[in-house]
Amino acid sequence: MLSSPPVRLGELVSAVTALSARELPASLTCDVLGSEDLPIRRLGTLSDESDGVLSFVANPRYRKHLSSSRAVAVFCAPALVDALPTGCVAVVTPEPYLAYALASQWWSARAVPDALTAASSSSSVHPSACVDPGAHLAAGVEIGPMVVIERGARIGAGVRLGAFCFIGAGAEIGADCILHPHVTVSERCVMGSRGIVHSGAVIGADGFGFAPEPLSGRWIKIAQLGAVRLGEDVEIGANTCIDRGALDDTVIGNGVKLDNLVQIGHNVQIGDHTAMAGSVGVAGSAVIGAHCTFGGGAIVLGHLTVADRVHVSAASVVTKSISTPGHYSGFFPIDDNASWERNAVSLRQLDALRRRVKALEAAALNTGG
Amino acid sequence: MLSSPPVRLGELVSAVTALSARELPASLTCDVLGSEDLPIRRLGTLSDESDGVLSFVANPRYRKHLSSSRAVAVFCAPALVDALPTGCVAVVTPEPYLAYALASQWWSARAVPDALTAASSSSSVHPSACVDPGAHLAAGVEIGPMVVIERGARIGAGVRLGAFCFIGAGAEIGADCILHPHVTVSERCVMGSRGIVHSGAVIGADGFGFAPEPLSGRWIKIAQLGAVRLGEDVEIGANTCIDRGALDDTVIGNGVKLDNLVQIGHNVQIGDHTAMAGSVGVAGSAVIGAHCTFGGGAIVLGHLTVADRVHVSAASVVTKSISTPGHYSGFFPIDDNASWERNAVSLRQLDALRRRVKALEAAALNTGG
Amino acid sequence: MLSSPPVRLGELVSAVTALSARELPASLTCDVLGSEDLPIRRLGTLSDESDGVLSFVANPRYRKHLSSSRAVAVFCAPALVDALPTGCVAVVTPEPYLAYALASQWWSARAVPDALTAASSSSSVHPSACVDPGAHLAAGVEIGPMVVIERGARIGAGVRLGAFCFIGAGAEIGADCILHPHVTVSERCVMGSRGIVHSGAVIGADGFGFAPEPLSGRWIKIAQLGAVRLGEDVEIGANTCIDRGALDDTVIGNGVKLDNLVQIGHNVQIGDHTAMAGSVGVAGSAVIGAHCTFGGGAIVLGHLTVADRVHVSAASVVTKSISTPGHYSGFFPIDDNASWERNAVSLRQLDALRRRVKALEAAALNTGG
Hints:
The structure is a homotrimer.
Chain A: E1 7-8, H1 9-17, E2 31-33, E3 39-40, E4 42-43, E5 53-56, H2 63-66, E6 73-76, E7 89-92, H3 96-111, E8 124-125, E9 130-131, E10 136-137, E11 142-143, E12 148-149, E13 154-155, E14 160-161, E15 166-167, E16 172-173, E17 178-179, E18 184-185, E19 190-191, E20 196-197, E21 202-205, E22 210-212, E23 219-221, E24 228-230, E25 235-236, E26 241-243, E27 250-252, E28 257-258, E29 263-264, E30 269-270, E31 275-276, E32 281-282, E33 287-288, E34 293-294, E35 299-300, E36 305-306, E37 310-312, E38 317-318, E39 326-329, E40 335-336, H4 337-347, H5 350-368
Parallel strand pairs in A: 4-5, 5-6, 6-7, 8-11, 9-12, 10-13, 11-14, 12-15, 13-16, 14-17, 15-18, 16-19, 17-20, 18-21, 19-24, 20-25, 21-26, 24-27, 25-28, 26-29, 27-30, 28-31, 29-32, 30-33, 31-34, 32-35, 33-36, 34-37, 35-38, 37-39
Antiparallel strand pairs in A: 1-3, 2-7, 22-23
Helix pairs in contact in A: 1-3
């Protein structure tokens, strides 16, 4: 699939170790055991049978797959070097997965011709784009076809906006952000630098706020006067929604990563470097800590507080605040349908069963006494 | 953030009490205890430390937050007037949350320069919009950039269509609807007056209907010949999907409010003033009553009937029809992961446990006899 | 709603039986019992009171509804012919639902004037579309308004692209595909022939891949170098997301049907003719078999394998690989809230309860011995 000329591992590794200080943790260094002159044609998995694959092994469990790999070079931890097949170059690092991540960025920027990466220093605005004269575009932006930018919006240096992006009045897109096609950033919302937003994401739709009219039961809309503020290095998945606040803003911390189809309600706060997998939902005014992770489909109810370093399993429902770091779960274990049905029926009588056991215990105590 | 000139509380309150008859319930009146001349600069929460905040307190539980509030005026119930700090104006009403909702609409329309509210009486069609000559636009519409309106579509008076909206052939958008950027309304779908649709919502995609071919297992598509009909005052969240019917229409009642990322299957019917939070899913042909509420991530299976005034908790799965109003729940309680694992393992043997208890009871009976 | 001239049943049935060999299973034949000259004006349900309804009955449970139907003709199985009301024409087939599906396609193509069906042999490209000179358009394509097609993309014969579709660089859209408005197909992704994609779907956003930086907890992005490959006859629902692979491609088999708001993670593989209902989520690298079905909101965790012909109930979480065909379930049964609360509390002590029962059994054994 990739038809660019091969690069040499030496060049690759020097590039990895020479990445900018922001990108490269000081602790990450790679030692190359073997020839540095092998041509790398592709990043791939250990089982990729293509020629010239640079691969990685991050988990010691995969040791057994190493001997049969056709990779020409592998990022690996020191303990796995001896498991590599003969002739395979070891690129040794205590953090092979991290090294692979950095290498993949490097590869994407240089070897994938159509990758959406940092724009050049000269700006380009597609003639079909509709940019309000009252919007401000910094240097080096790349504005794709059919983009709409409203009055007062500010587009930072190096930003790339894909086709059909909508930037509302007064919104601000920080430097070096990449917005893929079909992204909506509503009025007055703010993105920090180096953010990435995937197609179909909606940042700044109205929060879901209504006051019930007591007699009629009609819902009276509460105007959503706040906005959304995203920190730096935030990545937002496809068709994910982050609602604007009712009075204050919805606030997403630095380095937060949200997968696709995630729903973030109004006035939610998410701490730095928290990650949420696909289809997670966070209801309004929940306050989520830093360095948390949420598995796919997890739900957080409104107005709760979740501490830093809390990890919630997929499909689990956070119904009360969590103040202690740790791993939390709550979903019904899957089973063959007949077994599930039997257990589900019994579950609906569980409290009664518990009382029956209590009665048996009391009776046994009496009998024993 | 808001730089408009301050408004006086007297003006605000008179505006609130002077809103149109449709907006303002006759029962809602506010008594102002204190000076009516305080300048209001912002609607805010009780803890907002900005100058000139008009706030509200809807829940008696928040009484304790009142004394430390810097708000200059507060919508509150009569019972909370004595808890306000000295100098703070009480705007007294039996329905402070409702009053706040109405005030927020008023504020948004007058003080937020870029709010999408009712269009002026003169129409505007952005030159980049693509409007079929066979479409009909009523007076006072505002058609944003890059909008596409197909033949036979009818756009009611005062409608505002944001950028990139698509209105399919023969669709009808009722008067005073607001469609935010990137909304799709497919052919022949109908929206009642005063609807609001947020970005990315898709109204009228094909329902999910296929007939299995017995031998091959291939799925043969069933053409979806119906449409979607939305009542008046309906609000649809970002990236929410409402599918068109297979034969008859999918029908959403008046005043229904759907949050973001909600999925409504084909031929669903939803009664008036029902509200569904984010990521709810309703499978095909379900019939939902009026004045129901569904928590985030709840699921309703297909072909079921749910009565009026049924309230379903978040993440609960409605697997059978519900004929009695009430509050229904069904999700696994979250726990620390180790506890959850132990209980989940036991849960898979629950029916066996129930039978063991039954045997113990029988034995105890024999022993006792 | 449909104002096209009536068609005659004879014409309809001959059309059904004369559909192309690809569309019509050889085993499907219809016998018409009654006049073939009844004018059909509408496909409808058995309870549709319109004039000239052609209906169907697929489930013997609906026998009781037949006698009161006003339909002029009904697709039905031989065993139900005697239940039809007098004068109603029986279109007899062992597979009435399949016959109805085929008839609905035929009806849509001929009687619904705005149906998106196969384009004519001459191409049309809307003047507002933005097609890169380096893109390749086959014969007979229909490119809607505001469409963007990037360099190197290939659009197959007979393809219809709705308004605002985005086809990225090097992507390939197979012959006779229909993409509704607002679809995103990212760079290098490939769709097989006869695919249908509904509005807002995003094919080829980046997979959710990050390496944690050990000390800082920052997430380092892993460039997503793979693409998405869809087989033939695939249908993708509105706002559904299928992520591109990290190294290899995400692969969706022939005949797969995904409903709305489905999330497919990177490097997932889905076998032929598997169907997933709304809001399903499949995490990265899961391998799903052929002929599977997933109920709405079901979740499959990452790196699992699911065998062919596995059927997962709605809202169930697949947490381990499934190697045996069958029906699997796992969700908390819904109950009135008070009962649910009692049982949920007991559930959190279930393992302790199990141990208490064990102790009782041991005590009973001692007593008995």
